[in-house]
Amino acid sequence: MTQKIRANSVLPARREPLTLTTADGLNLVGELALPADREPAATLIFLHPLPTHGGMMDSHVFRKASFRLPALAGLGVLRFNTRGTWSAQGTSEGAFDNAVGEQYDVAAAIEHAEFHDLPNIWLVGWSFGTDLALMHGLDPAVQGVILLSPPLRFSDAEHLAAWAESGKPVHAFIPEHDDYLQPEEAARRFAPIPQAEVVPFPGSKHLWVGDAERVLDEIVRRVAPDVPLPLPHEWDGPMETADTSAYNAHNLDAYKDVPVPGPAQARASAADEGA
After folding, report:
1. pLDDT in tens, 114-126
2. How is the chain split among helix, strand and coil, in percent rounded to 5?
3. In the chain, where are the structural domains located?
4. Please, which residues have CB within 8 angstroms of residue 200's CB and are 6 or more apart in sequence?
């Protein structure tokens, strides 16, 4: 029976809970979802938004990617909670480290994909996760990077220069009404990377509410160009329904009074520890 694919629809996949162990000895909670009936054409490693503001491996675009892309696009999806981050899947060990210690988290995810011979590895960062990708994701095993709502808050010119020199694909998806970096400014900021593609998303905002389908289509367009688009909105086969009620309290209003961390706070924290 053909059914409409809804926000919490879970399509068939081989799903495996993961524990990623970092070089500094932390265990991170994760999940790998692979196509049920074939090997993946490509592998997406998702790096989530700020955990201090509700970002996690189950942030809605990433959750829908795991629910849909193995079946609809033949892609592998690896997502995980960075150090100290909670989701319904569990809490990773450690504490948020202002994009510093998180270098080991990114490395652990890439190493897992590489060790298990997962093909055509791409990083997909969202907000804070884009900084992690730019700062720590330039690994020989990584084919390229897709950046959703990049604020360029922690990453700097040095990181952009390294990606420019690598020649690897950099695709920046920029919402028209983003809170931090809008299309015109993004084009200027990414100009040092000659191969960077800055993709404006008219009408979209930083959190991509209502735009997940469009984002997933554009991700697939770049990592698996042979897959017909747009992706189907209906599914003729088995389908489960996920319980996402645990995230109802983790909305924008819950974090509106929480200061957004950045490099200045990271430096102040380091100075305090050295005092």
Report:
1. 999 999 999 999 9
2. 30, 25, 45
3. 2-274
4. 174, 176, 183
Kindly tell me the burial class for residue 268, based on how many C-beta atoms sit within 10 Å of its own C-beta (0-12, 13-18, 19 or more).
Answer: exposed
CA gap 227, 73 in Å, rounded? 6
Q: What is the pLDDT of residues 15-25, one digit of tens each?
A: 999 999 999 99
Mean pLDDT (the chain, rounded): 93
Q: According to the CATH classification, is domain 2-274 in 2.60.40.10?
A: no
Q: Which helix (H) or strand (E) covers residue 240, if one does?
A: strand 240-241
The burial class, CB within 10 Å (0-12 / 13-18 / 19+), for 217 is middle
Can you say whether the dihedral through the CA atoms of 153, 158, 159, 163 is positive or negative?
positive
Go through the chain and tell me how many residues it has: 275
pTM exceeding the 0.70 threshold for the entire prediction: yes
Tokens of 178: 């983003």
* Residue 123 to residue 11: CA distance in whole angstroms: 22
